Amino acid sequence: MQKIKGKNFLLRKLQPIADKESIVSNINDKDILNKITLDYPYTDSDYQMLVEKFEKEESEINCGTISFIIDIDGDAVGVISLFGKNKNESKHRSEIGYWLGKKYWNKGIMTEAVKLIVNFAFKELDKKKLTIGFLEDNISSRRVAEKNGFKYEYLKKKEAFKEGKYKDIIYFTIFNGL
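^ thats the sequence. predicted structure below, dont judge the formating
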């Protein structure tokens, strides 16, 4: 897997042992976990599932998903992924998912990381359609999508259960050459 260099960060592969403490401490925050589909608290078994997901991506050529650690000064402070069901079914499309440690919010990091992933997906993987889905009240993710040229496509009603209630998930899309 290649590394992708941002202005103040690096997108790289997971280092399971070295990254554990940083990943767990950065994601284990209610403000983060209430904005994405993972549950609070983030446990060691959740981290193990992340490790297994990264290992599967590396070992299975047809898994259809590519994930990167967002590395700032050697610390794993977030994750950004291109999801697909499998390489054949998602040859032309992927969904982008991400999270970032709270102390790194509002610094343009995720906006730039998404821009880099969009460029990678369009130029290196020849994707034609990319989608970002986010909980209805995740205004920050909406802004990240809009700043990167994504446009509203559709809404899934009551798709997620967070903070004791059902929430809609909104999907924004960008196309490459279509």
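Residues 69 and 79 are 5 Å apart (CA to CA).
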